[in-house]
Amino acid sequence: MFYIGCHLSVSQGYAAMGRTALSIGANTFQYFTRNPRGRGFRRPAREDIEALNKLISENGFAPPLAHAPYTFNPASAEDRIWSYSRDSMREDLEVLEDIPGALYNFHPGCHVGIGAEAGIENTARLLSEVITPGQGTRVLIETMAGKGSEIGKTFEEIRAIIDSVDEDCKSHVGVCLDTCHISDGGYDIIQDTDAVLETFDTVIGLDRLCAIHLNDSKNPLGAAKDRHEKIGEGFLGLEGIARVINHPLISHLPFYLETPNELDGYEREIALLKSLRK
Ligand code: FE
Ligand code: FE
Ligand code: ZN
Questions:
Q1: I want to staple 234 with a disulfide (CB 3.0 to 4.6 A). Which of 77, 189, 212, 229 is the partner?
Q2: Domain of 234?
Q3: What is the Å distance from ligand 3's center to 125 Cα?
Q4: pLDDT tens per residue across span 70-118
Q5: Whole-model pTM?
Q6: Any idea which ligand is nearest the CA of 226?
């Protein structure tokens, strides 16, 4: 099964996101759990979640990927920011317990001067505090482009976060690989797909890889810029992206587009990717 979806706005409601996904040929989707740059949070109505769950099971969707807002910084040394990130993440995870199999993606954060090692410790400590051993949701650390003081730009940093999480929480931690970010981070996922996935397996373990953010990049390999491009219009290119979605080690995973598109653009990209899927 080819699971492909794109980023949708949560403001339309949960069941409506499912209907929107269906209308553009998707069979999964991603959304921000709250305004990505603001701090507002409205708990979704139970009926809305139930309607979404029904749509998911009736249409054979892969569970949705909830994305934490950009205002979180789990790596922060500032207590106010770190505590806000922790409390909000807890709230997000509580909601997701009502969506079976849901995934939760977050940016491991920026160390802002305290150094990557200290940032990694802060992020791991936050995960240990928000994850409950019995939860159903897998929490995914996103691979980052390495812009500014971002942690998570190397597979080793992601491994270091996982290593520092409490033992009874570890099985709930996974990784979301962003194709634009890792290319910006210097991993040539296009020319050296096999080698990059092998490195991922050696350093982190492919069993932790749960989702792919499928994006082209406006910038060349190693640029550390994090500017997504439409599929086939950037430095990754259509041929390489086709190799990625068909790679036997990852083709079973859900792919989420975060390309600069409106709904009609996403619909076209989904159709294009389906035509390239072997
Ligand atoms: Fe992200
Ligand atoms: Fe991403
Ligand atoms: Zn990005």
A1: 229
A2: 4-276
A3: 24
A4: 999 999 999 999 999 999 999 999 999 999 999 999 999 999 999 999 9
A5: 0.97
A6: 3
